Amino acid sequence: MIEESIKDNYNNMSKGQRKIADFIMDHMETAPFLTAAKLGDSCGTSESTVVRFAMMLGFDGYADFQQELADQVKTKLTNKAEIKTSHYRENKNDILKGVLVADAQNIVDTIHLVDESAYERALELIKKARHVYIVGIRTCAPLASYLGFYLNMIRQDVKVINSMNISEIYEQLFWLNSEDVLIGISFPRYSMRTLKAMEYGSEKKACLISITDSEYSPMNMYSSCNLWAKSDMVTIADSLVAPMSIINALVVGLYIKNEDEVKKNLGKMENLWNDLQTYSGDEMTDGG
Q1: How far apart are alpha carbons 173 and 36 in whole angstroms?
Q2: pLDDT of 93-120, one tens digit each?
Q3: For residues 43 and 24, is the Cβ–Cβ distance under 8 A?
Q4: Degrees (nearest 5) of the Cα angle 7, 11, 17?
Q5: Total domain count for the chain?
Q6: Are 37 and 161 found together in one domain?
Q7: For residue 210, what are the contacts with CB-CB under 8 A and spacing of at least 6?
Q8: For residues 137 and 111, what is the distance between their CA atoms, to the nearest angstrom?
Q9: Do 50 and 122 belong to one domain?
Q10: What is the DSSP letter of 191?
Q11: Within its chain, how far is the Cα of 38 from the centroid?
């Protein structure tokens, strides 16, 4: 185990290597997503020091160390889920209330976690953007879709990136530029495709907004506007209640900032929905 190896070798490490060791021990779930250069920057050391650190622990290079660390984090998260599963298995009568209480606690924790100034900045960036792109992969895809659905009611030129293929994601982001906003949504275990999309957005000088779990998330490497929400998993399922609340707050905030225009849009949409009999009451007519 890398943690044990770090502890065994800590007294023999240089000052720079100890900085790396301390960072990894404190940010075990984030570290696997950092390149050697990024890890060095985060610790205030050089890329070469990071490589030497990995080799001192017995690895051929940083790539091997990074892969082993990722595997161990994956196992750790799986074990956490199994522990919670065991609890609910032994207390079957507590499952419903237990999950609801856990989700409610995530929202309470998020109230203390989220940065209100970042929230206000996100509203302004989305409002002023030429185009808004949203990327959320795997379990975060429903969050991206939900946000995209409501943003399309509020403003034009909103695009949800809906591909698992990294080359297709780049293709859908091809016209991204400094006048646009890219919103990335990712929670542990962080999607590498989402991180790549954010990296691409950074290279294109777009305004980046991340919706993620904490200040230690690798999403923060690319975004200067970060909205944090607790997402502690309940057994095998990620808790996305608090992230959904953050998204609802964005939608409501944007509505308030542009209320008159949004009301006009909703009025036009309501007429369209009636014409198309979109909802269950629309097909009812007098006399049946």
Answers
A1: 27
A2: 677 877 888 888 889 999 989 999 999 9
A3: no
A4: 80
A5: 2
A6: no
A7: 183, 184, 185, 186, 198, 217, 219, 220, 222, 223, 225, 226, 227
A8: 25
A9: no
A10: P
A11: 19
> pLDDT tens digit string along 247-284?
999 999 999 998 888 888 888 888 888 888 877 765 54
> Residue 126's domain is classified under what CATH number?
3.40.50.10490
Bridge partners, 210 (sequence order): 184, 226
In terms of domains, do 187 and 240 share one? yes
Say if residue 68 is in the same domain as residue 131: no
Distance CA 38, CA 42 (A): 6
Same domain, 117 and 192: yes
Name the amino acid, one letter, at 11. Answer: N
- Give burial (CB, 10 Å; 0-12/13-18/19+) of 174: exposed
Final residue of a structural domain among 17, 43, 73: 73
- The verdict on 26 and 117 lying in the same domain is no
Average pLDDT over residues 140-169: 93
Summarize pLDDT for 178-201 with one digit per residue, the tens. 999 999 999 987 888 999 999 999
3-state secondary structure of 1: coil
Q: Which range marks the domain in which residue 171 is found? A: 113-273
CB 50 within 8 A of CB 74: no
Are 69 and 145 in a shared domain? no
Distances (CA, A) of 207 to 92, 100, 158, 212: 46, 35, 14, 16
Tokens of 34: 């950092």
Residue 268 lies in a domain: yes
In a domain, 225, yes or no: yes
Q: What does the alpha-carbon distance between residue 70 and residue 76 come to, in Å, rounded to a whole number?
A: 10
CATH number, domain with residue 19: 1.10.10.10
169 contacts 193 by C-beta, under 8 angstroms: yes
What is the distance in angstroms between the CA of the first residue and the CA of the last residue of the chain? Answer: 71
Same domain, 128 and 244: yes
